[in-house]
Amino acid sequence: DIQMTQSPSTLSASVGDRVTITCRASQSISRWLAWYQHKPGKAPRLLIYKASTLESGVPSRFSGSGSGTEFTLTISSLQPDDFATYYCQQYNTYRTFGQGTKVEIK
Amino acid sequence: EVQLVESGGALVQPGRSLRLSCTTSGFSFGDYFMSWVRQAPGKGLEWVGFIRTRADGGTTEYAASVKGRFTISRDDSKTIVYLQMNSPRTEDTAVYYCTRDGYCPSAGCSNYNYNGADVWGQGTTVTVSS
After folding, report:
1. N or C, which end of chain B is more exposed by having fewer CB within 10 Å?
2. Is the Cβ pair A32, B47 closer than 8 Å?
3. pLDDT per residue over B82-127, tens digit each?
4. pLDDT per residue as tens digits for the range A35-61
């Protein structure tokens, strides 16, 4: 099974900060990676797929990069609505989520 | 409007079966894989499994944690996907979401057919406890 490891687990940041979350796969997954945002009590929201393709309607401050085993999600200027938990998901072989990164207010 | 609505969540005793349903509308259901994802209290998202389209064989895949106990099925005529939970354990306590998975209207689909879980239901809560 492919394991996904995100870092950090928690990130404290301020509005306007540039934020980067890393996701590592236990084996190469090419670019078969998606990113999601999840807020308590709501359904998760797809942000990015194929490592760097922005889902329709997602603000351009979100971007993704990487291939193989290492990937990043970057928020260029953190907004109040962005405080949430973020998950990566591989879909090279079935599906696996990372453990999540909580972005909290500093 | 594309919609997924889960139902069937309940308090269930360990070992007693439960079936969740996900009623869909607003898209060509038969052309999509469908997945179930769960979130246990205080934990992250966990993929449970998916079912392929009938055109791609209609087969299923599961996470190791539920394989052999849970079964996903679909009724394309009713546009509903089901999650049959047999022999549930306390660790299966979670909010269960159904999601729209890859677009696959014909046989031989690949990762190119998956653009992320772009539609989610609101979730249904399953509590396994005696």
Report:
1. N
2. no
3. 999 999 999 999 999 999 999 999 888 888 788 999 999 999 999 9
4. 999 999 999 999 999 999 999 999 999
Contacts of A91 in chain B (CB under 8 A): 111, 114, 116
Under a CB-based contact definition with an 8 Å cutoff, are residues B36 and B96 in contact? Answer: yes
Contacts of A19 (CB under 8 A, 6+ apart): A11, A13, A74, A75, A78, A82, A103
- The answer to whether B47 faces chain A, any CB pair under 8 Å, is yes
Pick from A8, A38, A2: nearest CA to A22: A8
B112: phi then psi, degrees, rounded to nearest 5: -65, -20
Q: How many Å is the maximal CA-CA distance in chain B?
A: 45
Could you tell me if A18 and A74 are in contact, meaning their C-beta atoms sit under 8 angstroms apart?
A: yes
